[in-house]
Amino acid sequence: MSKTYNIKRFGNVIELKADKLEEYKALHSDSHPGVRHLLTKHNIKNYSIFLHQFDDGKYFLFSYFEYVGSDFDHDMEQLKNEPENQRWWELTDPCQIPLKNRQPDEQWSQMEEVYHND
Amino acid sequence: MSKTYNIKRFGNVIELKADKLEEYKALHSDSHPGVRHLLTKHNIKNYSIFLHQFDDGKYFLFSYFEYVGSDFDHDMEQLKNEPENQRWWELTDPCQIPLKNRQPDEQWSQMEEVYHND
Questions:
Q1: Residue B1 pLDDT more than 70?
Q2: Is residue B98 within 8 Å of residue B107, measured between CB atoms?
Q3: N or C, which end of chain A has less CB nearby within 10 Å?
Q4: Among candidates B111, B108, B79, which has minimal Cα distance to B9?
Q5: Which helix (H) or strand (E) holds A49?
Q6: How close A11 gets to chain B, by Cα (Å)?
Q7: Domain spanning B8-111: which CATH class is it, in words?
């Protein structure tokens, strides 16, 4: 049951437009192909997205995934250049509101890992 | 590399008091024993906590973990009753501000999983 591969964990956050809630969920449902095979191809495993409405009424998405390759930047560049992934982002980007304080190259904001226990 | 056990994934969110940032991080650092062995004992694996400051200046914590046992409610009840865990929560609870719209029995708010890809 132990994981024998070397993984790096990522947590990211972004706002979801309230009027895109159902559209976003439908795009990510099990029955929608999405870009699952591209995640696998580029060494992204165990990818989950969670949704929650905050007290101010805004919706936020939180993603968790594990990178199991040996060159994250290279894999992300490759993924970014996949035409199928670009078409996917044309569907998902309009649903999202990136945080204003994000880094220049970010859509989702990468969070800081402050704890981990295998 | 595949996972052979049946897992249920959880994502949770809570606010972290700005003046408790360093204290909370120190409690969760690798060098602090915390309650890691109790998580393992009660079938909670691959537990990560991420931290991020939102545009309004507030800090939020996001936890991700996998439950690999067969009776989640029972394990959580057992965990809650561990004296060592109660002492742990006496340290961590004062650092946190639970969301106002949480469920009656919640400290952290459980989020909805809207996507998963192994």
A1: no
A2: yes
A3: N
A4: B111
A5: strand A44-53
A6: 6
A7: alpha beta
